[in-house]
Amino acid sequence: MEVWRPSVGIERLRALTGANVASHSAFSSCVVSAPVVPWHKAVTDRLEQLLKLSKGWDGYDGVAVRFENATFAIKVLELVFPGHGPIPQIVPGATGDLQIEWHMDQADIEIHVLGPYRVQAWRATAATGRDGEEVRLTNDFAIVARWINEMLEPRRAAHTTAA
Amino acid sequence: MMPISTIRSDDLPDFENPPLNEVVVGVQFAPPQAYQLIRAGEVWRLFASEFPHVEEHPPIMPAFELFGGPPGPPISLGINVQGALHNRLWFLSPDRDQIIQFQPDRLLHNWRKSLSPSNEYPRFESMIARFEKELTTLEQYFMSLSGERLLCNQCEISYINHIPMTGGDLPNRAGAWLRFLNFGEPEPDDLSGVIRRVVRSESGAPVGRLNCEFVMDTRSLGGLVLTLSIRGAPAGADIATAIDFLKRGRQLLCVEFAAVTTDMAHKIWGRVR
To answer: Which of A13, A34, A75 sits opposite B66 (nearest CB)?
Structure first.
């Protein structure tokens, strides 16, 4: 029987080019959507709620979270937060800013988005003591990715042991 | 402020007849608090003498280039939040080859090739000088509303090249045009891909991202579309710093274009340097 094969396979394209070569979308209609990362809906729902806060929501002059700050926060989470992990709390600030927080046994982490590229990140662990450590960040969030990874490591180890 | 040179730098690759189809320079900024949708007509009037036509298009979502981890699957916020973004307006020149794109958090200027014989690429030096004036005009307008300056947070420059591969004796192999492709036989019918690289400052800190996107389809496109772009945050929030980012980005893109395309292609496009 004749064997069907594409004129150039995608693996061969990758090998030949070394580039991120994607197949054209001719077969995309039969592809099932990628699994949704569990925290996406919870986080976007919460942010959309915070974007709709009315003026004076805090009993003073607080304004809704600014759209560009919410968008920036999502970009940070896309980068530093893996697909599985505890959903962070998201707390509005009074001036359109917001804070992303995890409070766990092993660590507390807070990422304060003051504006696009204006972020203060803080964490406290047994090693840092209660005062913790704080950094100001602009576009490079490698340190926060490391903090979150370290925070989640005991959970992963526990899951592996249980399995 | 130092005057902007409109003379092309001597050390950049140069072509007599590059396959350039469109150039975009743009800046994203914090939406001014005092600006409201009802004022869009006032913004158009700032530019209407040279850009008399208006079109309305869906908004571009805020974009940020971040570093420090592998990006996860993209997530998007709904934009059905009142006042989050309003539509993007195009202000077009009489020939429709120059476009100012405006929305409350962005200003972009496009040049695009048209069928008009007078439609020659105005060259980057004059395009960036013009864009700086347009940004300054917009900033002055926003300042007249509430004293707010433009706080630039992201810059973008893109060069879109249309490389014909059919007709005459032009080679119809992708590898004849792009240095990094070599399929042997048989050639693919169509292909697309993106190569992304982090752009770093002299100190090694990430400042932006260079994207090289290519789409080849000899049937519907008649060749290759090669888009080179750089996006990133300027070192400061003022207009001069944003313009500086765009100028540096343009230099990198010129060098990248010469690096990813073949010597044969350079010969066809009349490389002079």
So the answer is: A75
Residues spanned by the domain of A111 = 39-162
At B215-237, the pLDDT tens digits run 998 777 789 999 999 999 999 99
Q: Measured between CA atoms, how close is A47 to chain B, in angstroms?
A: 8
Picking from A17, A67, A142, the nearest residue to B81 by CB comes out as A67
- Asked whether the CA dihedral B139, B140, B141, B146 is positive or negative, the reply is positive
Q: What is the pLDDT of residues B51-76, one digit of tens each?
A: 999 999 999 999 999 999 877 777 77
Interchain CB distance below 8 Å, B81 and A52: yes
pTM to 2 decimal places: 0.86
Q: DSSP assignment of B178-234, as one string? A: BTT----SSPPSEEEEEEEEEEE-TTS-EEEEEEEEEEEETTTTSEEEEEEEEEE--
The ipTM, to two decimals, is: 0.85
Q: How many structural domains are present in chain A? A: 1
What is the phi/psi pair of residue A6, to 5°? -70, 155
Question: Do B77 and A43 form a contact (C-beta atoms < 8 A)?
Answer: no
A44 touches B: beta carbon within 8 Å: yes
The total domain count for chain B is 1
